[in-house]
Amino acid sequence: MAAPATRKRLDPSVFRLPVDRIREGYYSDAYFNFSRDLLIFEERHAHVTMQVFQKHDSVLGGIDEAVAVLKQCAGRFGPDGWEPGWEELSVHALHEGDEISPYETVMTIEGDYSLFAHLETVYLGCLARRTLVMRNVREVVEAAGEKQILFFPARHDHWLVQTGDGWAAHVAGAIGVSTDAQASWWGGRGVGTVPHGLIAAYGGDTVAAARAFAKRFAGEMNVTVLVDFDNDSVRTALEVADALGDDLWGIRLDTAETLVDRPLWHEMGDFRPTGVNELLVRRVREALNAAGHERVKIVASGGFDAARIRKFEAEGVPVDAYGVGSSLLRGQNDYTADVVLVDGRECTKVGRRYRPNPRLEPVG
Known about the structure:
The protein is of the alpha/beta class. Helices cover 33% and strands 18% of the residues.
């Protein structure tokens, strides 16, 4: 796997956390809020070491967001309002994009438990979501080798998750994301293709929509056009390439998995003819090359995951980039936090133990 792109942590301000709500415990499991309130009421200042881990070979995501939660929301309410607690804690953590193993400690939090008991739900959720996305993206990036991965799952989940998911995809190696929100944490922009809706708005004329799109945007992006609107990807790809010339960067194949694209209607063989398959890609590539459009890229999308990409690559299918969507949000990568030390002595539930990790670095 590739090394992380950077060791610098994101500034907490990037995340735009609802700080007041998190401090109140609004997003926390209620029992953590009750625990905090009891500890404060009884003035019980247990000095603990909290240990955070998960159970898979994975890629760490969300750690900077988890740290931001602690930095901005650790503390307690006193007579004069909020009393910050970050400076009273000692936190050690791995970095975004680090490869992690099952049960490896990714973060420890040491200090007065009443200062951060209410935050467990929130920082574990950050880690679980972002690690899931990062692990899945890293898997498809590795499957694709040198080919580009375009991160296209925005429409498959709630819009509020886009910013952090896009960052996780970026760190894991995705070359492009589809929304400005997904690109916002590193100052990028969303990329995309001429969509089916725009083609419909031009009366179902892919060439007319592509011409208008290229005229307006060719100077600021790589123009890529969906060519399956009429279920005749070879013909439409050639028409678009002829019409746009140098303004066209690539075409995108996205034939529905329930359809056989017209160029394959008379093909027989031991392949699955529906959707974007190996033979369809080859037919489009052959047609573009024969017409002098060798430089036009082919983006394949529609139901791709790491296994399918590996199969395409093993068979030498001439795809230049893969658009991957909902498969990048599937699965689970849950995290657990345990108090393992109290006042320097081991004190944890049966079945868990203190697992020091020399890879952890102090968080300033």
